Amino acid sequence: xxxxxxxxxxxxxxxxxxxxxxxxxxxxxxxxxxxxxxxxxxxxxxxxxxxxxxxxxxxxxxxxxxxxxxxxxxxxxxxxxxxxxxxxxxxxxxxxxxxxxxxxxxxxxxxxxxxxxxxxxxxxxxxxxxxxxxxxxxxxxxxxxxxxxxxxxxxxxxxxxxxxxxxxxxxxxxxxxxxxxxxxxxxxxxxxxxxxxxxxxxxxxxxxxxxxxxxxxxxxxxxxxxxxxxxxxxxxxxxxxxxxxxxxxxxxxxxxxxxxxxxxxxxxxxxxxxxxxxxxxxxxxxxxxxxxxxxxxxxxxxxxxxxxxxxxxxxxxxxxxxxxxxxxxxxxxxxxxxxxxxxxxxxxxxxxxxxxxxxxxxxxxxxxxxxxxxxxxxxxxxxxxxxxxxxxxxxxxxxxxxxxxxxxxxxxxxxxxxxxxxxxxxxxxxxxxxxxxxxxxxxxxxxxxxxxxxxxxxxxxxxxxxxxxxxxxxxxxxxxxxxxxxxxxxxxxxxxxxxxxxxxxxxxxxxxxxxxxxxxxxxxxxxxxxxxxxxxxxxxxxxxxxxxxxxxxxxxxxxxxxxxxxxxxxxxxxxxxxxxxxxxxxxxxxxxxxxxxxxxxxxxxxxxxxxxxxxxxxxxxxxxxxxxxxxxxxxxxxxxxxxxxxxxxxxxxxxxxxxxxxxxxxxxxxxxxxxxxxxxxxxxxxxxxxxxxxxxxxxxxxxxxxxxxxxxxxxxxxxxxxxxxxxxxxxxxxxxxxxxxxxxxxxxxxxxxxxxxxxxxxxxxxxxxxxxxxxxxxxxxxxxxxxxxxxxxxxxxxxxxxxxxxxxxxxxxxxxxxxxxxxxxxxxxxxxxxxxxxxxxxxxxxxxxxxxxxxxxxxxxxxxxxxxxxxxxxxxxxxxxxxxxxxxxxxxxxxxxxxxxxxxxxxxxxxxxxxxxxxxxxxxxxxxxxxxxxxxxxxxxxxxxxxxxxxxxxxxxxxxxxxxxxxxxxxxxxxxxxxxxxxxxxxxxxxxxxxxxxxxxxxxxxxxxxxxxxxxxxxxxxxxxxxxxxxxxxxxxxxxxxxxxxxxxxxxxxxxxxxxxxxxxxxxxxxxxxxxxxxxxxxxxxxxxxxxxxxxxxxxxxxxxxxxxxxxxxxxxxxxxxxxxxxxxxxxx
Length: 1133
Description:
It is a single chain. This protein is of the alpha+beta class. The chain is built from 20 helices and 17 strands. Helix content is 72%, strand content 9%. The strands form four sheets. Strands 2-1-4-5-6-7 form a six-stranded antiparallel β-sheet. A six-stranded mixed β-sheet has the order 8-14-15-3-16-17. GO terms for molecular function: ATP hydrolysis activity.
C-alpha cells in the first residue's frame, strides 16, 4: 500500500482545501512533516484515518469536535495504490461531512472508488459499506492501522504493552491468520455438519426404500417371466389373425380396383367423338399457323408501299419551299454587311469622347462626396471639443470629493479594530463552551443509547420467553407423536409375537404331519403284506402261520400332502414377514431415539414403555393361521405408512428444534451484549457528568467578563467588527486608485481638447481646395456632352453598335439554317424514292410466296387463315388433352387386365372380411392386456431391483461418511479453541521480535535486544549488564521510543495486506523530542538507510535538528488570527 495524494478541507485547523502529493515524498527512505506545535501536523494522520475508517482516533465518539469552528463543511479524500511489483491498482476514499451541532457532524456523502483506465468506478457509496470495503481490502481494523501503520500521538508504544490475547488477535488480523483459526474451525464444523446431514439423509432414504430385499427381487423376477411367456403366446395368436386379415384385405382391394378400372374404360370410350373433333380443330390450327406469316407479310408490304408513296410526295413539296427560303436569306445578309461598314467608324469615334466625359463626371462626384464628409467631420470636431471641456471640469470635481471620503474611511477603520487580548479571551471562552456543548451532546447521546440498550434487553427477554413457549409447544407435540409411535410399537410387537408364534406353530404342525404320514405309510405297507397273507402260510415279517387280526388298508394320503404344502407356505411367509417386522421395529426405534432427544428425560422415559404382553387367542388350525397371516401382512403395510408419516414429523421436529436452539443462542448472546453496552453507557454517563463539572470550574477560574450564554454574542460581535473592518479596508484600498484615475482623466481631457483644435484647422483648408476642383470638372463635361447626361449618351452609342452587330449575326444564322434545311430535305426526298422502289419489290415477292404455299392447302383465303389461327397455349392444351385421353384409355385397359389376372377368379364377401377383422380385434385386446401385465410386472421388477441396488449403494456410502465423521471428530478435538492460531501467532511474533531486536541493537549500539517470554510478552535483554532480562515497563521514555520504533518498523516490513501486498509506508508522530543528540543522529541514520527497501517512513516532529537532516519534507504553516487555516508546502532539497 502506497499513499498517492491527500485532500483536506475544514478538518480541525485546516479551513481551505489543502492537497498533499505523497508521490514526491514517498520515493523510498524517510521524509518529514514539520511545523510548530499546534500547526496541524497530526491532523494529517487524522485525515488519513478519517478517510479510510470514518473516525479520528483522538476525537470523542470518533467525530466530535473535528470540524473547524469557522466552517460548516468538512471533506477528506485519500488516494492510494495497492499491488505488488507487477500490476498496481489505485483506490480513492472520499468522505464529506456537514455540521449538525456545535461539536457534532453528520455524514453527507461517502464514496469508495477504484481507478479503471482513466475513469473512477464507484464501488460503495454508503458510509458503512465504504468502511467495510476498506477493511476487507486492507485486512486491518482502525486499531490495527493506528498501531502498526499510522501511529498518532499516544499510540506509539501500545503494541509493545498489549496483553497476550489482544496481541494475538491483532497479529491474527495483520498476518491473515483467520484462515487457521475461526475460518478453519468454521469450515471444519461445516464439513462435520454436512457429513452428519448426508449420513442421516442416507439412513432416511434407506428406510424410505421399502421392500428392497433379495427375496423381493427374486419374486418380482418370477412374476415378470410368467407375464413374458403369456405375452409371447398371445403375440403368436395375434400374428395369425393379422396375416388372415391382411390376405382378405388384399383380395377385397383387388376387387375394388378391378371395378374402378372397368368403370373408367367405359367412361373414356364415351369421350371418343369429342376427341376426334378436337383433333380436326388442332389440324386446322396448325396449318393456319404455318400460312399466317405469309399472309402477314403480304399485308404489311402493301401498307408499306402506300405509306412510302405518300411520304415521297410530301418531301418533294418541302424541298421546293426550302430552296426559295435559302435564296431570300442570302440576299438579306449581303445588305446588312454593307450598312455595318458605313455606320460603325462614326459611332466608335463619338463613343471615345463621351467615355472621357463619363470619367470626369465620376471624379467630380467623388470630390463632392469627400467635401460632404469633411463638412460633417468639422461639425463632429466642434462637438468633441465641447465634450472634453466638460469631462475636464467633472473629473476635477470628483477628485475633490474622493479625497474627502478617503479621510473619513481611515477614521472608521481605526474605530473597528479588535485587540489581540480581546480576541484571545473570546476564543478561550468559546473553547470552554464548545467542550461543554460537546459533553452535553455526548450526555444526550449516552442517555438515548442507555434507553435503547435497556429497551433492547427487554425485547430480547420477551423474545427468549416466546422462544421458550414455542419450544414447550413443540416438545408437547413431540410427546404426542412419541405416544402415537409407542402405540404403533406395541401393535408391531404384538404382530411380531403372532408372526413368531405362527412360524413356530407351523413348524411343529409340519413335523406332526410328516410323522403322521410316515406312520400311515408303514400301515399301508403292513396292509399290503396282510393282503397277500393266506391262512397257514408264514408271514414274511414275523414267520407266523396264524393271522388273527390282519392290517386293513386306510384311505388316500393326498389330503395330508395338500396340508403339508399349505403348512410350508405359512412357514416361508411367516419367516419373511417376521424379517420385515423386525426391520420395521428397528426403524421405529430409530425414530423414537430421534424424538426423545428433543424432550426432557422424564417425558422421554414416559414415551418408552415395556413391551405389551399379547393376550389374544392364538390360531390353532391351518385355516386360522392363514387368515391371521393375511391380517398381519395387511396391518404391517398400514404400520409402514404410519411410520413414514412419523419419520417426516421427526425430520420436521429436527429442523424446528435446530432453528429454535440457534435463535435462543443468538438471542442470549445479543442480550448479553446489550447488557454489557448498558453498563458501559452508565460508566460513560458518570464520566461525562464529572467532565462537565470540571469544565464549569474551569469557566469560573478564567473569570470572564460575560456569561456563558453570551459567548456566541461576543463571537458574533468580533466577527461583525472583523467583517466591517475588512469591508472598510477594501473600500479604502479602492479609494486611492479611484482618485488617481480621476486626476488622470482630467489630464487626458486637456490633451484631447488641444488635439481636436489642430484637426479642425487642417480640415478647413481641405474643404476650400475641393470646391475649386469641382468647378473645373463641371465646365469640361459641358463642352463634350453639350448639356446631355454623359452616362446616358454613352449608353445610347453602345446600344447602336450592339444593334448593328446583332442584326448581322441574326441574318447570318438565318441564312445558315435555311441552307441546312434545304440540303436535309433534299436528302430525305432521295431516300424516300429509293425506299418506295424497295417496298414495291417486297410486295411482289410476298404475293409470290403466298401463292406457292397456298397450293394444296385446306385453307385458300386470308380470311380462313385468320379464322383458324389459335394461340400456342391453346394448341398445347389441345395436344395435351388428346395425349392424356389416349394415355388414360390405354392405362385403364392395362389396369383392368392386370387386376383380372391378379385375382385369377378369387373373391371374398363383406361378411367374411368383417368376421376376420372381429377375430383380430379380440386377439389384439387380449395381447394388449398381456403386454400391460408384462409392463407392470417389468416395472415392478425394475423398481424392486433398483431399490435393492440403491440400498446397497447407500449402505456403502453410509459407511464412508461414518469413517469421515470419525476422522473429522479427531481433527475437531485437535483444533479446539485457539491453540493452533496461538501457535502460529507466537511463531510470527518471534520472527518480528528477532528482526526488531536487530534494529534495536543498531539503534542502541548493541546494548539492548528484544525477546519474547513464555507468556508471549516482550522482555528487554540488557547485554550491557550481562544479558539480564527485565520487563519493558522499566525502560525510560527514550528507550521505550527506540524499542517501539524497532518493533513498529519490523512489524510494518512484514505486514502483507490481505496476505498478498506489502505495506509500503509508515507514519510516526511522537518520541523524537525524548532523544538526545547522539541517539537522534543514530535513529535518523538508521531511518535514512531504509531507502534501499520499498518502505517509506514519515516522521512528524517539530525538532529543528531533525528537520535539517531530512532531504524530503512537508512544511505545515499554522492557522492565523485573521481566519486563514493551516497550509502545507512541499520542500525537497
